[in-house]
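Re-run with default settings, no changes from the original entry. Doing this only to confirm the output is reproducible before filing.
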Amino acid sequence: MGGFNGYKPAMAMVGLQCIYTGLALFTRAALLQGMSPRVFVVYRQGVATLIMAPIACFTRWRNPYKTSLGLRTFSLIFITSLIGVTGNQNAYFEGLYLSSSTITTAMTNLLPVMTFVMATIVGMEKVNFQSLRSIAKIIGTIFSVGGAICMALVKGPKVLNIKLLPSKSLLLGMGEDENLQLGCVFLFISCLCWSFWMIMQVPISASCPDHLYSTLWMCLLTTIQSAIYTFVTEPDLQVWNLHSYLELGSCLYAGIGTAVSFFVQAWCIQLRGPVFVAMFSPLCTVITAIIASLFLHEKLYVGSLVGALAVIIGLYIVLWGKAKDLEEIKQDTKDIPKLEGDQTKSIQVLIDQSVEKSKSCTSELEESLLPDK
């Protein structure tokens, strides 16, 4: 059972990448129909807040050991929501609208590199070029990112083109007013903000261990922040109208996915760290390529297969390095109680010796002061 529990964070992150794949595909279709990316962020976060509110309140009502939200914790959550969620989501969906689903999922594979660099700068990750674990994480990151870029840019001969749907795909189509360069800039900014969010989960989890409660506050604050930003940038109230079931369904799917993703990522970051969570992002590109090939009339090329293989190899290399880090941490944790126990025994022996010596000195003193009979 303990071995299965060790695989739960990895299984949760794989499922999360499937959610991100559906989000990229359906959201792209809704944006092409004319929905504003900024309005979409507000609706998405609003739905997530409505979903998280009863769940978080119920769990806190059942939990007798509730953690209070102090000024420091609220400040951390507010800043993280502003930069890591509001900035991230607005930049992400703006980039998705200006580019495409394929380019978006490929660009987000920069997330592991940015998170690894940020974590190293703040001291959460240690880089030792003489350590095999550190070298493995660096090589694995390069493999994963390089494989994702290969999937997006390198074609080669066509391998497979299965058409399971008779109609032409609309989900991965490119818009007429696309601006790929500007879209990539927005996606790059989104990755920076996303990496910041992952790094900030460490102090937030330490201040507020209740992930549901902190997630609820993030969703609520992001909804308010995004609404203010949308009203400032788009004062026309007509942009808030939903014109199709696809737009409504995309907002609902995104809101549910947001609520699930926030909780799963915060839980996995607390267990394995931010770099572990970030390293699963290349899988989204792999899953998108497979779905696009089977259902959306996208052609599968040799470059896509080579890139997918590189992503998987790099992922396992990094996971191996992280597993070795966990083993070292567990070993150090086991050694601490043993050392404390040995020190306690030594101190107890010294105390006993001091007591015996004190008794001996007291006895000698009493004998010398007693009058001779």
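The radius of gyration is 28 Å. Confidence is low (pLDDT under 50) at residues 167-178, 338-347, 357-373.
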